[in-house]
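2024-03-11 09:14:02 DEBUG pipeline.ingest accepted 1 chain
2024-03-11 09:14:02 DEBUG pipeline.ingest length=151
2024-03-11 09:14:03 DEBUG pipeline.predict start
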Amino acid sequence: MIKAKKLIIPSVIIFVCLALGLLIFEIRDRNLKTELIDEIKIEDFQNSLYTDYFFIRSDEYINFYDGFEMLEEIIPDYDFEKLDTEQFTYLVSVNGTVNTIEYSGRNCKMRNAIGLPVTYTAFLDYEKTNDNIIRIYKIKKIDIDYDYHSI
């Protein structure tokens, strides 16, 4: 009985330390590295979308919108075979450039049953250029989306 009590206290301490470590890991701000993979100039472009940027993500994620359809709406003849959503997530920027993308577990759209983030909210350092260029950036595969309510 005494041995069991001696094991309970260290076990609880280890569990609390692991839980705090996971919490700190999840709430810290993180940056995503971007790689510009395509720029398409469109003459006489009229942005009919409700946003200046959007993500093209894997079908395994819950998508509020279809990024492929949005891209096809502005560039109907784009070669979608270039985009491998099984390996990467893509950010499409309309008339602007992306400097950085940040995300954090404390600002997420969806959480799983135990409270860990599932869909992250992206915060972009974005510069409007109004140059009629669509830019496509490749980022690591992640379930990330923009905040629909802040645009």
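2024-03-11 09:14:41 DEBUG pipeline.report The two ends are 60 Å apart (CA to CA).
2024-03-11 09:14:41 DEBUG pipeline.predict end
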